[in-house]
Input
Amino acid sequence: MGLIQCKDVCKSFGEKVALDKVSVDIPKGKIFGLLGPNGAGKTTLIRIINRITIPNSGTVLFDGRPITQDDVERIGYLPEERGLYRKMKVGDQAMYFAQLKGMSSREAAAGLKKWFVRFGIESWWNKKVEELSKGMAQKVQFITTVVHKPSLLILDEPFSGFDPVNAQIIREEILRLKAEGATIILSTHNMESVEELCDNIALINKSHVVITGGVDEIRHKYGNNNVELIYTENRPVESVPGLYTVLSDQDDAGRHTAVLSLDAEKDTNAVLKELVAQNITVNSFKELVPRMNDIFIKLVTEEE
Output
């Protein structure tokens, strides 16, 4: 059973249907990617899980029971629209947000100090938010989201505003939090981050779930039975009817990189045996699995 289970969740705003019988199961201790184009309904679902918005129908379970307002204290939510008070000092504001999540003053101060040291930003404590760059403010807001050690983290476009170096720091922190037992919902348009971080995903488009499952499982499901062959030979490999077709072959001084399309019923062992029989020196032979970005575009375009 997942930490969060959404069952047939529906939400409308007037005539606009935001969610139409959306069901997702978010496993404990995993990173769950919530994907979809702008306006698909992702933010509405996040707001329902946070009890900011109430669904018209359907249920949301937290650890197997209907979610309550008390459960919200166990959630850390980093919204896409950042919300720091520009005139407040960074330290005062961080303390305020930590205590809103139920931490005592002493707990908040100790927890925040550890995070500020971890990020090397101790000198920011007495600065006003308006003195910070967008990326600096993002770091502070990330800290206020995680300092109370929530069971569930909801991160909406967490890499927005970061340069590549700081984006990688945040990725490493997300993986560390997962290793410590947190369940994480990651809403992002960055498909590279999805492949790097996520265990499972749900793709929402036009208010309903298009596909959900494990990232590796989905990538293999949408594969087209192509393999990459790197081999050494003074001649190009040839297609074998009924076994494989050579789609492309690039020769670099006798080192070839070819893409083969396997016949649907043929396995890789049969292809390798044929290549060996042709006296081909195989250096590398691997399945070409489609990227999540390609699958995202394919599914959304088909919906359109």
Q: What stands out?
A: The first strand starts at residue 4 and ends at 13. Residues 164-179 form the longest helix (16 residues). The chain has a mean pLDDT of 92. DSSP finds nine helices and 14 strands in the chain.
